[in-house]
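Need fresh eyes. Consider my entry:
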Amino acid sequence: MSEAELLQLRFAAMDTVLSVFSMFFGIVSAYIAGLYFFLHKAPWPLRMTGFALLTAGFIFLGNMTLAIQRVTTGIIVAWSGISDPVTRISSLKELEIPDFVKEFVVSIDASLWPSAVDGYLIGILLGWVVTFAVYAALAYMTFVYRWSEAK
Protein backbone atom coordinates (compact mmCIF):
# COMPACT_ATOMS: atom_id res chain seq x y z
CA MET A 1 0.00 0.00 0.00
CA SER A 2 1.10 3.52 -0.62
CA GLU A 3 1.90 6.05 2.07
CA ALA A 4 -1.18 8.10 1.18
CA GLU A 5 -3.45 5.06 1.46
CA LEU A 6 -2.00 4.12 4.85
CA LEU A 7 -2.43 7.67 6.16
CA GLN A 8 -6.02 7.68 4.94
CA LEU A 9 -6.67 4.37 6.71
CA ARG A 10 -5.06 5.73 9.89
CA PHE A 11 -7.31 8.80 9.82
CA ALA A 12 -10.35 6.58 9.19
CA ALA A 13 -9.36 4.48 12.23
CA MET A 14 -9.06 7.65 14.33
CA ASP A 15 -12.53 8.74 13.16
CA THR A 16 -13.89 5.37 14.24
CA VAL A 17 -12.24 5.74 17.66
CA LEU A 18 -13.90 9.14 18.05
CA SER A 19 -17.25 7.64 17.07
CA VAL A 20 -16.86 4.87 19.65
CA PHE A 21 -15.95 7.45 22.31
CA SER A 22 -19.00 9.49 21.34
CA MET A 23 -21.23 6.41 21.71
CA PHE A 24 -19.59 5.64 25.08
CA PHE A 25 -20.23 9.18 26.27
CA GLY A 26 -23.86 9.04 25.11
CA ILE A 27 -24.53 5.67 26.76
CA VAL A 28 -22.95 6.73 30.05
CA SER A 29 -24.73 10.10 30.07
CA ALA A 30 -28.11 8.49 29.39
CA TYR A 31 -27.52 5.88 32.09
CA ILE A 32 -26.53 8.53 34.65
CA ALA A 33 -29.66 10.55 33.82
CA GLY A 34 -31.83 7.44 34.07
CA LEU A 35 -30.16 6.47 37.33
CA TYR A 36 -30.68 9.90 38.82
CA PHE A 37 -34.29 10.31 37.76
CA PHE A 38 -35.68 6.78 37.81
CA LEU A 39 -33.46 3.80 38.54
CA HIS A 40 -32.36 4.83 42.04
CA LYS A 41 -36.00 4.34 43.15
CA ALA A 42 -36.64 1.30 40.97
CA PRO A 43 -37.05 -2.25 42.30
CA TRP A 44 -34.09 -4.63 42.13
CA PRO A 45 -35.15 -6.48 38.91
CA LEU A 46 -35.47 -3.20 37.00
CA ARG A 47 -32.03 -2.07 38.20
CA MET A 48 -30.59 -5.41 37.08
CA THR A 49 -32.23 -5.04 33.66
CA GLY A 50 -30.92 -1.52 33.21
CA PHE A 51 -27.42 -2.52 34.28
CA ALA A 52 -27.56 -5.58 31.98
CA LEU A 53 -28.37 -3.30 29.05
CA LEU A 54 -25.49 -1.01 30.04
CA THR A 55 -23.21 -4.05 30.20
CA ALA A 56 -24.33 -5.18 26.75
CA GLY A 57 -23.57 -1.72 25.38
CA PHE A 58 -20.12 -1.75 26.98
CA ILE A 59 -19.41 -5.24 25.58
CA PHE A 60 -20.39 -4.05 22.11
CA LEU A 61 -18.15 -0.99 22.37
CA GLY A 62 -15.31 -3.12 23.76
CA ASN A 63 -15.54 -5.50 20.80
CA MET A 64 -15.55 -2.53 18.42
CA THR A 65 -12.48 -1.15 20.17
CA LEU A 66 -10.64 -4.46 19.90
CA ALA A 67 -11.39 -4.61 16.18
CA ILE A 68 -10.11 -1.05 15.76
CA GLN A 69 -6.96 -2.01 17.70
CA ARG A 70 -6.25 -4.90 15.32
CA VAL A 71 -6.77 -2.75 12.23
CA THR A 72 -4.62 0.06 13.60
CA THR A 73 -1.86 -2.38 14.53
CA GLY A 74 -1.90 -3.65 10.95
CA ILE A 75 -1.65 -0.09 9.62
CA ILE A 76 1.28 0.64 11.95
CA VAL A 77 3.09 -2.53 10.86
CA ALA A 78 2.50 -1.68 7.19
CA TRP A 79 3.80 1.86 7.82
CA SER A 80 7.02 0.50 9.29
CA GLY A 81 7.64 -1.19 5.90
CA ILE A 82 7.90 2.17 4.14
CA SER A 83 11.61 2.87 3.78
CA ASP A 84 11.56 6.64 3.17
CA PRO A 85 8.20 8.26 3.96
CA VAL A 86 7.52 11.50 2.10
CA THR A 87 5.66 12.96 5.08
CA ARG A 88 8.68 12.51 7.39
CA ILE A 89 6.50 10.65 9.89
CA SER A 90 8.82 7.95 11.17
CA SER A 91 6.19 6.02 13.12
CA LEU A 92 2.45 6.18 13.60
CA LYS A 93 2.87 5.05 17.21
CA GLU A 94 4.92 7.91 18.64
CA LEU A 95 3.12 10.45 20.77
CA GLU A 96 3.78 14.05 19.85
CA ILE A 97 4.34 15.78 23.17
CA PRO A 98 5.02 19.53 23.30
CA ASP A 99 8.60 20.48 24.10
CA PHE A 100 7.65 22.46 27.22
CA VAL A 101 6.12 19.31 28.77
CA LYS A 102 9.27 17.31 28.07
CA GLU A 103 11.48 20.11 29.44
CA PHE A 104 9.37 20.32 32.60
CA VAL A 105 9.56 16.57 33.23
CA VAL A 106 13.28 16.44 32.49
CA SER A 107 13.88 19.42 34.83
CA ILE A 108 12.37 17.40 37.68
CA ASP A 109 14.27 14.20 36.94
CA ALA A 110 15.71 13.21 33.56
CA SER A 111 15.16 9.52 34.31
CA LEU A 112 11.38 10.11 34.32
CA TRP A 113 11.37 10.70 30.56
CA PRO A 114 11.34 7.47 28.55
CA SER A 115 13.55 7.16 25.48
CA ALA A 116 10.53 6.41 23.30
CA VAL A 117 6.94 7.29 24.15
CA ASP A 118 4.47 4.85 22.58
CA GLY A 119 1.40 7.04 22.21
CA TYR A 120 -0.65 4.22 20.76
CA LEU A 121 -0.13 2.02 23.82
CA ILE A 122 -0.76 4.94 26.20
CA GLY A 123 -4.06 5.67 24.45
CA ILE A 124 -5.16 2.03 24.60
CA LEU A 125 -4.33 1.71 28.30
CA LEU A 126 -6.02 4.99 29.23
CA GLY A 127 -9.14 4.04 27.30
CA TRP A 128 -9.51 0.67 29.04
CA VAL A 129 -8.72 2.10 32.50
CA VAL A 130 -11.33 4.85 32.09
CA THR A 131 -13.90 2.36 30.80
CA PHE A 132 -13.47 -0.01 33.74
CA ALA A 133 -13.45 2.88 36.23
CA VAL A 134 -16.71 4.28 34.81
CA TYR A 135 -18.28 0.80 34.77
CA ALA A 136 -17.30 0.20 38.42
CA ALA A 137 -18.61 3.64 39.45
CA LEU A 138 -21.94 3.02 37.71
CA ALA A 139 -22.23 -0.42 39.31
CA TYR A 140 -21.61 1.16 42.72
CA MET A 141 -24.17 3.91 42.09
CA THR A 142 -26.73 1.38 40.84
CA PHE A 143 -26.50 -1.29 43.53
CA VAL A 144 -24.67 0.06 46.61
CA TYR A 145 -25.08 3.81 46.88
CA ARG A 146 -28.14 4.97 48.84
CA TRP A 147 -29.64 8.02 47.21
CA SER A 148 -31.09 10.65 49.49
CA GLU A 149 -34.39 12.22 48.54
CA ALA A 150 -34.24 15.83 47.31
CA LYS A 151 -35.60 18.35 49.79
Notes: The first helix runs from residue 3 to 37. The CA atoms of residues 40 and 147 lie 7 Å apart. The two ends are 64 Å apart (CA to CA).
